[in-house]
Predict the structure.
Amino acid sequence: MATPTIDSAALTSGAFGPAAALSCRECGERYDLGPIFACAFCFGPLEVAYDFSGGVTREQIEAGPNNIWRYAPLLPVSADVASRPNLNPGFTKLVVARNLGRELGLKDLYVKDDSGNPTHSFKDRVVAIALEAARNFGFTTLSCSSTGNLAGAVGAAAARAGLRSCVFIPSDLEAGKVVTAAAYGGELVAIEGTYDEVNRFCSELIGDPVGEGWGFVNVNLRPYYGEGSKTLAYEIAEQLGWRLPEQIVIPIASGSQLTKIDKGFRELIKLGLVEDAPYKIFGAQAEGCSPVSAAWKAGHDVIRPVKPDTIAKSLAIGNPADGPYVLDVCKRTGGAVEDVDDTQVVDAIKLLARTEGVFGETAGGVTVGVLRKLVETGQLDPDATTVVLNTGDGLKTLDAIEGTTGATATIRPSLDAFRAAGLA
Amino acid sequence: MATPTIDSAALTSGAFGPAAALSCRECGERYDLGPIFACAFCFGPLEVAYDFSGGVTREQIEAGPNNIWRYAPLLPVSADVASRPNLNPGFTKLVVARNLGRELGLKDLYVKDDSGNPTHSFKDRVVAIALEAARNFGFTTLSCSSTGNLAGAVGAAAARAGLRSCVFIPSDLEAGKVVTAAAYGGELVAIEGTYDEVNRFCSELIGDPVGEGWGFVNVNLRPYYGEGSKTLAYEIAEQLGWRLPEQIVIPIASGSQLTKIDKGFRELIKLGLVEDAPYKIFGAQAEGCSPVSAAWKAGHDVIRPVKPDTIAKSLAIGNPADGPYVLDVCKRTGGAVEDVDDTQVVDAIKLLARTEGVFGETAGGVTVGVLRKLVETGQLDPDATTVVLNTGDGLKTLDAIEGTTGATATIRPSLDAFRAAGLA
């Protein structure tokens, strides 16, 4: 790997706020904050460790801006982060889902709808934190490998921040996704190969002098990037009136989001911002890419990689890096991991849209489908405060419902035709 | 027209908040609040007249929710509107557009980005107000004619509110738009005919007993519906720190939005919420549907209808009902009306995305394109506080940029190939 260039002056002046170090999730070894992501001793993933001794109050947070920067004191960013050009994601709606709850038999259900983010997926949260790290490390190019949501989030964030962006996609990506990713005008490089080959190429690039000055949000900036998902936990708790949900259903791609939401809840308890009450975390996968669910059901603590085959492409990671940690979290909190097939995903997308007017991505179909299955199989308490995540926008996965959705009737422009069609 | 069923008890109990009556925009005749839209004497359009004698303070507004209901005291809705199931649109971002401003030579430029609304266009604002009126009038079906954004906004709003929805579209609409409109599960009726024929059919339906209990948001609920656009004016002023912009560029479809933003600014002045400072309003059209711009340039005060031919389909109204009022507003405020061709629309969509990370609809391409043209022709003061509206989302009009946007390069997964492509 190319030697990271770090401006140590920046690092000592509060550039990373309360972040104190990186620590290995496996062996606990600590490292100075830098653009590194794997433990030199055990190759375990590094994550951000904090010094929260300064504390933070609800009032401080509530006085902040209506975006993730209201939680700046809990993130690896400087206190003045809100004044720097960025997309200001987050503080998306927590929808009181009375209709969906009634239909499923859940008395106190909420949908955390992240389609309201600037590029309409939760990726804006994680990229915003990675962008701050990139600036701190003096990187001039923001990059990633992607098959969709992430490419747009990186392109848009770099545009606003005035950085170069260069994102890598498989060359067989659908035209619509290519346009969406290319819209922000950064460089978009199509790689002749599978998504796995794109990823391998990116790792090569980071290790080569050519990659100097490049911040790959989901590779060498990954420890910072991942922290962005904690903001989902903070927002849900604040929007519930500073309390934790009793049950939450979260999609699993790499598994990072689920583990970071758990981390966020624990931090809120530790800081005294919410009461220390039990919560159960449930993971949701699509059957066509369900290695974590399969491990959970088999009682294994290792993940057996699969070759993804599902319409929920934004969750289609066959070898999820954080899979074992997901199993830990679900076990520790008394939750579970469940999966639904593609037909159930489509049904759930429509159910959410029909009951709440929220048109979710296929990933939202996975979580709502799993929510329904968990109710039906008695794994959820129908009286408990329950949150389900919609992490993306239905406009990005129109093809998933295209074959099963359309006009109710086609008629001539006359009242007789209208009556004859039985619509009156 | 079928006799409107009005619950007069509801109307006297503050159901419409500060709204006192409907008044004819042409002759000033006043009517009780009801589901009517045209003056019985002169056929002029009716609009909501208010009694603001109760007043409202900045502090009251700032203590309200982060959506349009913070302005409930200025809208035809009850004081407890926020507690009723609805999509809670509005309070979208006012983006400080430093990069775009620098590129165009504007020192203090902002983009009001309405793609952040629940169904990603400003239509959620107007539909939310129409929904309240529909509830007050006891309507059970929410309806509209539409070729896109409005159908989704109505379907989603009705779903959340638990009303039936039935929207009418031309049967030759593109598949993607049909899916988007149908996603919310309401009835979607394709009419064999042009958009004009769809509209004529809807008017017939309202006048027939079959249409009893139907609220067409843009027909018999139009006076209420239109008021939703005032919230853009309120938000812009509040987000600028309670001051009016000196210049604002607004798209023209029917022209209603532009006139209502002017109405909103004047109300803020009258209520003492902002200083009484001059502002100039500029209207933006696509050349392929520019009847208002043509009238402006010719110095006419009537609009000559055109047959639309532009990629900016959400603005493609050939006979804009509020066109003459737009001319009045632009003349009175010292603004202008300008148009750009489809190539300039596409360039402007890309310019906005590349500089600010905001991927706008074709309507956003029209306003940003016109903004640029107004600068180039010396019609804008480069030092003045300027706002440009993006009223919709680029994901809905991907086809507009598809032919001109794509991968920078396609390469094999190797560093040599990467270097050879000149990307290093």
Q: What stands out?
A: Chain B has two domains: 8-55+123-225, 97-120+229-399. The first helix of chain B runs from residue 8 to 12. The CA atoms of residues 104 and 372 of chain B lie 6 Å apart.
